[in-house]
Design a protein that fits this description.
The complex is a heterotetramer. Chain B is mostly beta strands. Helices cover 11% and strands 46% of the residues of chain B. Chain B is built from six helices and 63 strands. The longest helix of chain B has 31 residues. Chain B is globular, with a radius of gyration of 33 Å. The termini of chain C are far apart. By secondary structure, chain C is α+β, with helices and mostly antiparallel strands. Chain C is elongated and about 110 Å long. Chain D has a five-stranded antiparallel β-sheet with strand order 4-3-2-5-6. In chain D, strands 1-9-7-8 form a four-stranded mixed β-sheet, with no helix packed on it. Chain D has five helices and ten strands. Chain D is an alpha+beta fold. Classes of the chains: A mainly alpha, B mainly beta, C alpha+beta, D alpha+beta. At the B-D interface, helix 1, strand 46, strand 51, strand 52 and strand 55 of B face strand 6, strand 7, strand 8, strand 10 and helix 4 of D. Strand 1 of chain A pairs parallel with strand 56 of chain B.
Chain lengths: 139, 910, 229, 234
């Protein structure tokens, strides 16, 4: 988690650099660091400094929102401890319940294609096996 | 009273339903529709010289009395008399008013106003019990109408004179004409008879003076007939027509005077007054499609050079049957004549000598018997594109190299052409008004709404009519061919063998008729776009075909063959080259014939055919016990989109859609039940009677429509004295026995049949269902009413499942026995159509739209959209408004953006 | 053989020149033949030069027999044997109500209104027939005109206008101090709820030893308690 | 009398075993034709276009009115069975001719057919549908088999006897506009409305309480919750 976070930070840093016009830091990457200078520390620093930047916050918040449903899936894995089994079960049950409720509601509203009539439009016409013709005698 | 109220409310709600299904706005008059009015084949005509607005008074074979404008040939007024023998016009005379005698049995004498066709008087003349109805002659002289009844048994003619206006009988006497044959004519004031030994006898009806003439030897014994020529002038002339020629005889001062010259039988002869008591005889004949007119003075035999002229038009003329002329002397003492000609192909031609043809009327169109709407070929540009994708066609243009470069070049050229035409249309938008006068190119439009109506008439003349304008594009008279008869109606087999969608092959149509002179059948294969023959053109078959069938598959030239069953049971395919191909499909082809008189239906299979010879072997036989009066199979073009019907509980009731199902009607005159109408639904492949139903005391008119899984029929109920509509609907059940294929041979359980009957408060002349390309659009039924309107009834109204109680199913309206007749549903609004014979419906390229062509005495073309035009924007769509709204919204969005920016800035400064 | 009298006065009335020769004629008719007489009244709005007489036809038995209109609107249908018939008048532009005419074997006429549903119902109308136009035939739909009220009360427009009002009007209301207070209260309420939710979650996690259902109950209780405060 | 016949959907169901005289009771009670009527059956087992008719059996409708049918069908001999199998293998038609002889002595021929393979498949179990018109004369005889499919071509053994069910299908009575019940319905509706008009004189509240109560509740609750909710905020 942490490593991935730093990587993303790194990316974010580079990305943010372009827009925030922090040209000094940019140059400092190209120029060899003075002895005793740890670039990683500087990164951490810049990150914390950027936390206060409203633009950055907005983007982060948006990402959180966007990742919300995905996180929910992974949260299932995060259930730990002595009661994990029952917790997982309840979590599962809750989800099933909500899906079931949604289905029940849809069914009661007649939104589910559960009748033959719902598939009628897809019924292909029967293929004609014999052809016929003729009529009244022409005199 | 409040019951009535409910009724009214219901009716209103139905009207609303109707309204939603059909709508025509007043400004749409004539936009999609046109009407043409006809009168039929000429029988009597009088050229009126007295009134200031010159007219021609005519009476026709279609029982129509009318006045035509001499200038344009258009109808000034028209009165359509009773249908059939009831209204058959026996005599017409016009001077101060038009007098007609019509009917057969009691004769109806009617007087009509010359100027506007109002009725002046009407009275009846009854025959005595001993008088036959058929051999009655009429003539008019000085306010008196003479009725001459030929009493065959007594060898006398009974002459009764009436006051023409009141019908009061003035005198009655008999004259003895011993030895006369039935060949008699009343000409002027004379009754003239031709005896079998070639003797001409005449008697003046006014004073019974006799006179006779022994006509020349050549007419003696030969099969000659007495033809009246012209009795409008004071010099009545008659002709004795023999095989090839006719001898003209004038009656002057109670004597016959044979003219020296005989004229060809096909020449039109008319006599008019000339200067100083002489008479002009005008002869007109057709030679190589050109009408030649010449005349001479009857008394002196001196030819009149002035009136010698010849007329021709784009299509050749046929032989002349009758002619009527009116000659006048100009100030410079030259003579000119106006001639009204009627030809064997039922055209009426009006011409002026030494001038030109003033107008022609195609009266054969009053007797259309079969119609097809044919797709037009694509335009040159689109043809070029199609060529591009057609690999077989690649090496047509030698100049363009084939392969990658060639393809590219071809694409470029076709797209350039498209661009050019687009530019042209953009440019011509402004000046389209000028272009209207010119003929529109016959090319397919993008919605498939522009088609060609190919009509076959009872006289054997074919027409190609542009469906948008109603103009006759081409015409072709098949003189040698005559129509077949089936249940006393003229019929031909008319098929489209190839549509115009198969470039480079032209579209091809097929007509099966009879040869006039022999017993053989004749076939005419032609290009429906221009009427020109394809292949053999008009040719005799060498056998008499009794039934035909258009095959369902095409050969390598995209041509559908036609199977012909001859009178000896032999089977042929046209073209004959398809024999091997047909035998490949033989197992799936079934064929049936029905004998209307005996009620025998016979089914045949082709299964025993070999590659060389097609054999029809009998496999089933049904013997109905009464005369078959109608037989209706489904339209081969029909497609059914929905295979079932959703019920109230959301389950499906599957339709019983049997393409081989044929509805057969029989009518019996039962002594107890009177006029029993039976309808049999017969599977013509397996020969089983799927369902049958009987109605007692049901009489004509009977009409039937058969489509999808339902049958709608109408009859007049003698018991309740009203027109009733029966509706049958067939269902397979809640499950389909075979979901993928339908086979009639595989046995099945009888379908479930729903039935219901309704009352239509009107008489019915014709009935037809609408048809669309994919069958998604709901079906409507077009009903030709005797009021002259065409009523559009949604099928929903005739649904047999309409419940009497509560509504349980979707889209089902509660049952009401009487169907409403709202004026909004009359698709021809006030364009009254007389004697509607049939309604032809055809799908257009748009799923929503069905093209409708109604024929009878009048022609009417329109299009209907049963479920409204859901696939195109309404023609009153407001492009301006939507553009304005869009522009406005974008401007508003931009402006508010600026405003918001400014506000944000202000906020930041605070 | 039966004799009957046809009065042709109507015919002759239109021909003044022939009034002098006015006569009542005896027509020898086949037995059981009658003449139905009547008059069609023109629509009131008709102008003199319209040709309504020529356009109007009278049909008997659905066109089996016909009557034609004279200039004054009168008509006769001759050769009618005894029986029951529907007389219909058709004009392309006007609707006429049909009438049922019954002639008994003695030649008595009775005219009544047509009712196809209750065929035995008799509502008599005068004979000789007087056919008056019911209404002008409305074959066409009226095109919808654009009207401001229609536009404004269009649900779509309403749906657009209402939010607009809310957006535009609500901020103005906010300027009012009292309403602002109220709004703040509401906001606070919402804010109060927020920690409630988190509290539930914390209690849920904190009370590890307790049974979940209990913890939920307690969370509910605490929630209720907080709201009761 | 006639109507009762027509209203019956299926008239006669008699199962006939060949070589046995079985007299079945027939539901159909009345019909217009009386007196015995005989149906003689011939079948063609040849492959050619022209059928070669061989006798299959005959049945006598003693009196269709009373509904007794007697039948006699000869069993298929070995040769016939073989030929039928050939027909079946060639996917050809088994053709049947029914000669109906009425009590007046009038003879009418009817032809019908089934796929030979379907007949083999259904072990010679077939149905004969006799269609009858309103006067009681036979208009059509059509044969169908118990199984319509020809899925498995190879059938080991065929029974030698036909198992035939005869079904009489009378013509049905056409519908008539249902004016009587419509008028009744109108009458009922009118009465119902008249009653309804007098009855529905309840007060406004009595009629619409179900709409009013929720609204009132909502208003009360939202009004009450506000000060309470605001309390802790201060």
């Amino acid at each position: 988690m942490a490593s991935s976070g730093s990587r993303s930070n790194n990316r974010r840093y580079k990305w943010a650099l372009d827009f925030n016009y922090k040209s000094k830091q940019e140059r400092s990457v190209d120029v060899p660091s003075p002895p005793g200078y740890n670039p990683a520390l500087g990164q951490v620093y810049t990150e914390t400094s950027k936390e206060s930047d409203p633009n950055h916050l907005i983007i982060k918040k948006s990402w959180d929102l966007a990742l919300g449903p995905l996180k929910q899936v992974s949260s299932f894995k995060m259930i730990e401890g002595s009661h994990s089994a029952s917790q997982k079960f309840v979590y599962f049950l809750g989800n099933i319940l909500s899906v079931g409720l949604a289905l029940f509601k849809c069914q009661s509203m007649g939104l589910l294609p559960s009748h033959t009539s719902d598939w009628l439009a897809f019924v292909e016409p029967q293929i004609r096996m014999e052809y016929s013709g003729g009529g009244l005698l022409l005199t | 009273m409040s019951g009535h109220c409910v009724h009214v409310i219901r009716v209103i709600s139905f009207l609303l339903l109707f309204k939603s299904s059909f709508c025509l706005y007043e400004d749409q008059i004539g936009k999609f529709d046109w009407r043409q009015r006809f009168i039929g084949k000429l029988k009597f005509s009088v050229l009126d010289s007295k009134s200031n607005v010159k007219k021609i008074f005519v009476a026709t074979e279609e029982n129509v009395v009318a006045a035509l404008s001499m200038k344009t040939g258009e109808l000034t007024w028209r009165q359509v008399l009773e249908k059939g023998p009831q209204g058959e016009i026996k005599f017409m005379h016009a001077d101060s008013e038009v007098i007609t005698v019509s009917g057969n049995g009691p004769f109806i004498v009617r007087g009509w106003n010359l100027a506007n066709g109002y009725s002046h008087f009407e009275w009846n003349s009854f025959n005595d019990a001993d008088e036959p109805h058929e051999n009655v002659l009429w003539t008019y002289h000085h306010g008196k109408l003479y009725k001459v009844v030929m009493l065959d048994s007594q060898q006398v003619a009974r002459i009764i004179s009436y006051n023409v206006r009141s019908g009061g009988q003035l005198a009655a006497y008999t004259v003895n004409i011993p030895g006369f044959s039935r060949k008699c004519k009343a000409i002027g004031i004379n009754l003239v008879c031709l005896s079998n030994n070639g003797e001409l006898k005449g008697v003046t009806v006014v004073n019974s003076q006799f006179f006779n003439l022994d006509v020349s030897a050549e007419t003696k014994g030969a099969n000659c007939d007495l033809l009246s020529v012209d009795s409008s002038s004071d010099l009545p002339v008659l002709a004795i027509g023999c095989k090839q020629s006719k001898l003209l005889v004038a009656i002057k001062d109670n004597t016959f005077k044979a003219l020296s010259e005989t004229v060809p039988i096909s020449a039109g002869v008319s006599v008019t007054q000339h200067v100083s008591g002489t008479h002009l005889i005008v002869l007109s004949k057709q030679i190589d499609g050109v009408i030649k007119v010449n005349g001479k003075v009857l008394e002196t035999d001196q030819p009149v050079e002035d009136i010698q002229s010849s007329f021709q038009s784009s299509s050749p003329f046929s032989d002349i049957e009758t002619s009527n002329s009116l000659c006048t002397l100009r100030r410079d003492r030259s003579v000119y004549c106006q001639i009204l000609l009627s030809t064997v192909d039922h055209s009426i031609i009006f011409a002026q000598t030494s001038s030109k043809i003033m107008w022609t009327r195609e009266e054969a169109l009053a007797n259309i018997i079969s119609v097809e709407l044919v797709d037009l070929p694509v335009s040159d540009i689109e043809a070029a594109i199609e060529k591009e994708f057609d690999n077989k066609e690649a090496p047509v243009d030698i100049g363009v190299p084939s392969g990658f470069v060639g393809m590219f070049l071809r694409r470029l050229t076709s797209q350039l052409l498209q661009l050019k035409s687009l530019l042209l249309t953009v440019v011509s938008l402004g000046e389209s008004v000028e272009k209207n006068g010119l003929e529109v190119d016959l090319v397919r439009d993008e919605f498939g709404l522009h088609k060609l109506i190919v009509a076959v008439t009872s006289v054997g003349k074919l027409y190609g009519i542009d469906n948008l304008s109603g103009n006759v594009v081409w015409q072709k008279y098949l003189g040698e061919m005559e129509t077949y008869k089936s249940i006393d109606k003229p019929v031909v087999s008319f098929y489209v063998q190839r549509t115009s969608r198969h470039l480079p092959y032209p579209a091809q149509c097929f007509i099966l008729g009879k040869h006039k002179a022999s017993d053989e059948s004749m076939v005419y294969t032609f290009n429906p776009i221009n009427g020109q023959p394809i292949g053999d053109g008009l040719h005799r078959l060498g056998y008499r075909a009794v039934q035909s069938l258009l095959l369902h598959f095409v050969d390598d030239q995209f041509l559908k063959g036609v199977l012909l069953l001859d009178s000896k049971g032999g089977l042929h395919v046209h073209p004959e080259s398809q024999t091997a191909l047909v035998s490949e499909h033989a197992k799936s082809i079934f064929f049936f014939t029905a004998n209307s008189e005996s009620g025998l239906l016979v089914g045949y299979t082709l299964a025993h055919s070999s590659l060389e010879k097609l054999v029809a072997s009998e496999v089933w036989r049904i013997q109905l016990s009464h005369k078959i009066t109608g037989l209706m199979s489904k339209s081969p073009l029909e497609r059914v989109h929905s295979q079932g019907r959703v019920l109230g509980d959301r389950s499906v009731l599957y339709k019983y859609i049997n393409p081989n199902l044929v509805a057969v009607m029989t009518q019996a005159e039962d002594p107890i039940h009177k006029n029993v109408l039976s309808i049999y639904l017969i599977d013509v492949v397996s020969g089983s009677i799927v369902f049958s139903i009987v109605h007692k005391r049901a009489t004509e008119p009977i009409h039937l429509v058969h489509s999808e899984n339902w049958i709608v029929y109408t009859y007049f109920s003698d018991k309740s004295r009203r027109t009733e509509i029966g509706a049958l609907e067939l269902y397979e059940g809640k499950t389909q026995s075979n979901t993928s294929a339908f086979s009639s041979v595989a046995s099945f359980d009888s379908p479930i049949v729903e039935r219901q009957a309704f009352i239509l408060p009107a008489g019915i002349e014709a009935m037809k269902e609408t048809i669309t390309e994919k069958g998604i659009t709901s079906k409507h039924i077009l009903v030709g009413l005797n009021s002259g309107g065409i009523l559009e009834i949604p099928w929903m109204f005739l649904d047999p499942r309409r419940p009497l109680g509560d509504i349980r199913e979707e889209g089902v309206i509660p049952y009401m026995p009487e169907l409403p007749l709202p004026a909004e549903s009359i698709i021809n609004y006030n364009q009254t159509l007389h004697r509607v014979r049939a309604i032809h419906t055809a799908p257009s390229g748009l799923e929503s739209t069905c093209l409708v062509f109604i024929y009878g005495l009048d022609l009417f073309y329109t299009r209907v959209a049963p479920s409204k035009t859901f696939d195109v924007l309404k023609e009153d769509f407001d492009y301006l408004l939507i553009t304005a709204v869009l522009v406005g919204l974008s401007v508003a969005a931009y402006a508010t953006k600026r405003l918001a920016q400014r506000k944000a800035l202000k906020q930041a400064w605070k | 053989m039966e004799l009957y009298i046809v009065n042709f006065s109507m015919v002759l009335a239109s021909f003044l020149s022939f009034v002098s020769s006015y006569e009542i004629n005896e027509v020898i008719g086949a037995p059981d033949n009658y003449v139905i007489e009547g008059k069609v009244f023109p629509p009131e709005a008709v102008n003199d030069n319209s040709n309504w007489q020529a356009e109007t036809t009278v049909l008997l038995k659905g066109g089996h027999q016909m009557g034609f209109i004279r200039e004054d609107g009168s008509f006769v249908i001759s050769n009618v044997p005894s029986g029951s018939y529907v007389v219909e008048v058709f004009n392309p532009n006007y609707m006429y109500e049909p009438v049922r005419v019954e002639i008994n074997s003695k030649g008595k006429f009775r005219a009544r209104r047509v009712n196809y549903i209750q065929t035995s119902q008799v509502i008599q109308v005068p004979y000789p027939l007087k056919m008056k136009p019911m209404s002008h035939a409305r074959y066409f739909q009226v095109r919808e005109q654009w009207r401001a009220t229609d536009f404004l009360f269009n649900p779509m427009v309403l749906m657009m206008v209402l939010p607009l009002l809310l957006v535009m009007v609500l901020p103005r209301l906010m300027n009012d101090p009292e309403t602002r207070k109220e709004m703040e209260q509401l906001n606070n309420l919402a804010k109060y709820d927020m920690p409630e939710m988190s509290e539930v979650i914390t209690t849920f996690f904190a009370t590890g030893d307790k049974q979940k259902q209990k913890s939920i109950k307690s969370a509910k209780k605490s929630k209720q308690g907080s709201s009761n405060n | 009398m006639f109507n009762s016949v027509m209203n019956r959907e299926k008239c006669i169901f008699v199962t006939l075993f060949s070589y046995l005289f079985i007299i079945g009771f027939v539901q159909c009670s009345e019909s217009d034709y009386d007196g015995p009527m005989s149906i003689t059956l011939y079948h063609a087992l040849n492959l050619d276009s022209e059928p070669h008719w061989e006798s299959r059996g005959h049945m006598t409708v003693q009196n269709a009115a009373s509904g007794y049918v007697t039948s006699h069908q000869s069993p298929l001999d070995v040769e016939s069975t073989r030929r039928l199998k050939v027909l079946s293998d060639k996917d050809s038609f088994y053709r049947l001719k029914a000669v109906v002889k009425t009590s007046q002595g009038r003879e009418v021929n009817f032809l019908t057919f089934v796929k030979a393979c379907a007949l083999v498949e259904s072990q010679l179990k077939d149905y004969l549908t006799v269609s009858v018109d309103h006067e009681g004369s036979v208009v059509g005889v059509s044969q169908s088999t118990a199984l319509s499919s020809c899925a498995s071509a190879a059938t080991e053994k065929l029974p030698s006897n036909f198992l035939t069910t005869v079904e009489f299908k009378p013509i049905e009575q056409g519908p008539v506009p249902d004016t009587a019940s419509y008028i009744q319905k109108l009458e009922r509706e009118r009465e119902a409305r008249e009653r309804g008009e007098t009855k529905d004189n309840r007060s406004f509240l009595a009629k619409y309480w179900m709409y009013i109560i929720p609204i009132v509740l909502f208003v009360v609750l939202s009004g009450a919750s506000n000060p309470e909710g605001a309390g802790p905020a201060r």
